[in-house]
Every structure is written in C-alpha cells, then in structure tokens.
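Final paragraph of the annual report: two paired records, presented back to back.
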Amino acid sequence: MRFRIDKLGVVIAALLAYGAFLAPFANFRANRIVPGEPRAILDALPSGLGAALLAFVAVALVLIVLKTPTLLRLVIGLAALALLAILIGLSAGHLTPPENTYARVSPASGFWLTSFAFALVTADALARLKLSPLARVALLAAVALAVAALLISGAWDGLSILKEYGSRAETFWLEASRHVMLALGSLAAATLVGLPLGILCHRVEALRAGVLNVLNIIQTIPSIALFGLLIAPLGWIALNVPGAAAIGIRGIGAAPAFVALFLYSLLPVVANTVVGLAGVPRDANDAARGIGMTDRQRLFGVELPLAFPVILTGIRIVLVQNIGLATIAALIGGGGFGVFVFQGIGQTAMDLVLLGAVPTVALAFAAAIVLDAAAELSNSKPGRAA
C-alpha cells in the first residue's frame, strides 16, 4: 500500500511536534507580574492526562502528514481544539496551590502553537469541504456556544486571564460596549455618507479621481497621527460651538476616535460602491430603460441590488478594520478593549493585555465570517449578475 504525503500537513506537523513535545504547555507564576515558570505537558496536567494528550497528538501527527480524508481531518482538528480548551483549564487547577489566590497560571507557547496547528488543520479541511455560507455561520455559532459553555461552567476560572476579568468584570463590559459602538457607529456613519458619495463619483467621472485621491491620502495617515491631528480642531469646536461639549465633542475621548474611524471607513465604502456600480451589466440598464424606468428607479431597482455584493465586501473590510483600530482609541481616552491592552503593557501584565486582545480578535474573526457569508448569499440570488 502506497502512502501519499500532504505537503501542508508536513508543515503543520512540524509546528505541532514542537508545540506539544518541546515547548512549555503552561506558565506558573507566584503572582500576576513575576516571571513565569514554564511547565511541559506532563508536568502541567494531572497524572495520565498529559500522557494521553501526547499520545493523541502523536496519532494526529501521522494522520495530518498523510493524505487522509478531509472529513477525518476536520474531526481531528475540532476534537483537538476542544480537548486543548478543556485541558488548559484543568492545568490551572492542577498547578495552583490550594487556597492560593495570588498564583497565576496562563497558557504558554506550546499551548498556543499546538492550538494554532490544529486550527490550521481545521481551516484547511473547511476550505476543502467548501461549506455553504449558512453552514459556516452555523459552525461559528456552535463554536461560540461551546466557548460560552466553558466560561459558564467555570472550567477556565483558574486561568489568569479569567482572574483579571473577575476583578474588572463591570469595566470589561463597559469598555466592550464602547468598543462595539465605536466600530459599528463609525461604520454606520461611513455607509450613510459613503454610499451616496460613491454613487455621485460613479455618475460624475470628473469628481471620481479627486474624491478617491483625497480618501487614499487619509488612508495612508497612521492612526495615532490622525487621532492626534483631530484633537486640536475638535477641542476648538467644544470650546466655541454652543452645545458641542454637551453632546460629547471634545479634544480627547470618543469624539476624535469616532471621527478618525469614520474617515478611515470612507475609502472602502466609496471605492466599492463605484466598482460595484461600474460592474452592473450594460444589458441590465438597457432593459430597464426599455421598459420605461427612470434614473431613480434604475438606481434602486437594478443597479444597487446588482452592486450590493461588492458594496457589502467593502462594508466587511471596514468593520474588520474598525474593530482592530478601535483598540488604539484608548490612547486618547476613547475607551474600548485597548484600555486593557495598554494597561497590561504598562503593568507588564500579559494576561491583562490578552483580556483586551482576545475579544478584539474574536470579534473581528466573527464579523468577517458573517459578512463573507452575507456577501456570498447576496451574490447567489437568482438573477444576480456574475
């Protein structure tokens, strides 16, 4: 019998072998800021579980390197990720001395590398299976429910990131709401302004180059610099325009962050609107004119529906971009998950950094999957132009 080697599987297997057998699985610290003591899998987990995990990884290594069925690879990836999620919680209880409230246990490089390797296996299998948009969203919902179940069950309560959350739960949800409002609010404002502006740029060719060039220039300004540039004019408005300060406009805080995110969002919305409208088949417009439709009727009844998938792709880019950029708003008092990131950096507390970084990444990832699915669904409707 001849075995076939999977080239991507070889790369993943190398990551997996190093992460599971050589790198530390967990870090133990006497308190939240002292350097950690790395613990390998056999030391980090209760007796027997470490050896069982290594045996599972060894079998998975062979199956990943060989060209095994795609469905089997998906099952291996998902099962491994679920197993690692449960075992890292058990390691916290195993390593923390009884009645010790100061000790901290956090995932180490081996855990992250092993998880990343199995995530690659899962992603590769999903790509090969070519799941439908609704199936991908359903899988995302299932993963979210599984994570919620682990959080509610208390399986991760011993991990240092959850201990950081426990002491800041109220602040966490306040900053989470600010982060979401900044990302979604700036997206909504950019859509309301960018969509008509994109339509105008499509209709008036002389205006198109100038508008897109200005928006391109704004896009090249570093985010910190743009936040700083907006402090002075917004501060002046707050002092000199009656009622401006009362509605939250000021030199620092959410206002400059919102305006900066809005400006960054305009280019993808405007550009994708222009591209989407330009891609509408001439035959569709000719047919609409032939049945007596006005310009307004053609725009809303023919052009915008046909251009919608491309426009939605631009909105997807904006949302994922804004979720990440909103983190930096904390530097000017705008709030959001960046508050924990920069506090953690200042206190050399990496788990506090993760408390802000992990939900930011999760939000961006979920938003990308949902909007990608929405774009595919809208593009596959009957009568949609290719």
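The closing record of the year follows.
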Amino acid sequence: MATRRRMLGAGLSFAGVGLTGVSLLPALNAHGATEDLAAAAPSPVQPFAGPMPLVPVLAPVSTAHGRDVYEMTMRTVTRSILPGLQTELRTYNGQFPGPTIKARRGRPVVIRQRNELTVNTSVHLHGAAVPPRHDGSPMDTIAPGAERVYRYPNRQAHASLWYHDHAHHVESENVYRGMHGSYLLTDDEEEALPLPKGAYDVVIGIRDAHFDLATGALVYRMSDRARSTLLVNGTPTPYFKVAARSYRLRFANHSNQRFLELRLEDGGDLVQIASDGGLLPRPHTTSSVYLTSGERADVVIDFSRYPVGTQLVLENTGFGAGAESAQVMRFDVDRTAEDDSSVPDVLRTLPPLPEPTAERTVVLRMDEDGRPQPRAYIDGKLYDPDRVDARIRSGASELWTVTNANTKAPHNFHLHLVQFRIRERNGATPGPQEAGLKDTVRLLPGETVKLQATFDTYRGEYVYHCHMLDHSAMGMMATMKIT
C-alpha cells in the first residue's frame, strides 16, 4: 500500500500564498457576509466507504437518417448520497450526475428536453459550436411543463464536453442541485491513437456540496464556503477498483466555484493528454492537474507501476482544500490485465495561429468590500440581455486580453461558441497544459491572459462570462454578436 505523504504545497501562488480552494480569501455570500474556512463542516461520511459509480451512457431512441436522437426529462428525484438520508436533486432523466452522451464528429445529435421541474431551465452544451437557438442562452428558457429540442451538428473536432443548466439567475442553483452531465465527442483522429479505450476510458466528474447533516438536503447559498464534501460521479470520496495497467481518466470540475488541484498521494506521474477542446499537441507529464470550475483535463495513469493490493489516494492539495476536502477518491489496484495501449509523443497537430484581425480587452471585477448586495461585472457593466457588448465580424480571428481586476477574488473566463488558444499568461508563454484548445481559462487575482479565437462557424448572439457560476449569476456576463 502506498503510504500517505504530507500535503504538498500548492503548485500555484498569489502574493506568496498557494491557491487551490474556492477563493484566496473568505468569499462574499449573497448578503455580503464572509465565511471563514473554519466554517467548513467535516465530511459527513467515512472516506472510501463506497465504490465510484460509472456514469451510464444514454442510448438514443433513434439512429435513423444519419443522426442520433435522445430524450431527456428534467425532474426532481431523491437519492441516498449520505448514509441513511435522502437528498432531493434536480436531474436529467433522474440521474445524478446526468447520463453521458457519446457523439461522433459529423453525426448530428438531437435531444428533446422536457422540463418537469418547477423552475425555468436552459441547456447549454459547454464547449460546443452550435447555432444560437441551440446554445442554451441564459434568457432562452424552457418553462415548467414545456419542452425544447436542441440540435447539435458536431462539426468540430473531438473533445470532452459537458452539458449543464444556463437559465439566468437560477443557473447557479440548478447546476449545484444536480443539472450537469458529460458529452464525449470523438472522431477518426482521436480513435486512431493507441490510447486506453473501452472500460479503461473513464469519466470522473468532481464537484463539491454542502449538506444539512440532519436531513440530507443540499444547502444552497451564494459563495458558500461550507461546500466541503467532494462528490465523484455523485458519490462522496469513493474508491475505484482498477487493474494494473493504463487508464484514460477524463477529469471534469463540475463545481460552481471550487478550484481543484489533483495529485496522486505519492507524487506519481499524471500524463495529461487533453484539455477542454480535445487532445494537446503533445502529452504533458506532471505531478498535478489544476482545474477551475467548468474546466476538463484527460490524463493517463499507468497503474502497472503499483503492485496489486496498492491503495492510492487522489488528493486535492493546496491552500483552501482543508482536511475535509483534501481527499478526492482512492484507486484500489486489485488485479492484473493486459495492456496494448500507449501514449504517442505527438497527439495532434494544430494549425498555426493567423495574425489577429482585431483586438479587444475584457475586464472582470466583482465587489469585494463587504457591501450588502455584492455584484459582479464585465467591463464595469452588469449583464443586460438586451445589450450587445461586442460586435464581431464573421470569419474574424480576434485577440482578447482578459484581466481579473480583483485583488482578492479569483475568476475564470468562458467563451460560448468557440474553442480558443491561449497566447500569453501574464506576459509569458503559457505552459504545456494550456497549449491546446480551450473554452475556459483560469484568472487569479491580478492575472491577465491573451487568448485568440476564430469566429468562423455560426452567426448570432452568444454570451461570455465567468464560469464560477455564482459570479455569472451576480452579473459577470456579457453578449457578443457575430455578423
């Protein structure tokens, strides 16, 4: 058995202090109060008491006419997450997290979504290039009792995407209460590689939660620092039985706000092969993977380096994790297995970036002075669905300079419609983990990133926002119009 090592220091820092938790300093809640890290409750369950469930793959109801048709119903269910208690959830098809959809480039997917909840909903396929009426706009909602058909053309390259609610002012609570799931898009380029496949290609969705320990209910309030129970595929701190061979693990951070830094407890290698927008140009061997809210990273772990019987903890390390959220899950190596997979030295070739046809700046800022009703802004403005904030020519390749103007609060930044490339982080070339296509990017206090996006697919209005969903619900969102 691998022995548990001391907590590693954070791989990132700001003002000399590591950052990996929800935010650098106590966060503002909806009423302007602050909550100290000490307010986080201890984990209500014994770690590694149950197995990590594999998220079911949804079967289409039709595969005729060259497309896959699915049906989903958004409904409230109760599930046992904590021992002996029932938790009410908002779900897709009664599953928590929602079912995984497997799609293929060039083969459209159609999903009929029926809303049997008591709140408005809007389904956004995060990271996808889709026409505006199928993007899940914050104001383009499905009323209770109504339904909506979403069409996804799947013309883009492979990527580990995800879907979640995006109805403005309720998206934060809807996602927190369970409305999220994975959408795996593949293509010939990805499938031709000898990466782990089948049972050895596993979706691992991680998020945090705050439970009422008397009733099992999920407690929701804005910027809650007590979301200290980590759920993996909907289960608190589970174990996962693996064979002594290589696995492709598709990590996704489905938390509303929490930042994760994932490490094996023995400091062993993680080989990152993909980020938000699919495979990296080359694999990146690292000891940790950093994911802000909404980000994804695919890694390969070779468990053959451990003897059968090893129990190896995946940790969330760094400032803000605390004892209650330091352990994510445990890998139990319980058998041997043949392995003909490998990670090539070159995973894909991305085209060179063209010269930008336009440049623009974006400034993210939120109130952090303790006022009773804090707000969050893009370029000093609250989100207004009737206002267009950026007008973009179709076919343009733009360079965006995005800055976090806060001194305490971290943010991240998500663009709808496009996958972008990060050209600079704080004036320097980004690291290899950010060398691929991205749709969400980290911005710690005072940080600036330059990203380049090409708007050559669909015309219309789309939003861009902080993907710490409590921040976007507070107004940190804007609209771009491609014409």
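Confidence is low (pLDDT under 50) at residues 1-40. This concludes the annual technical report; the extension proposal builds directly on these records.
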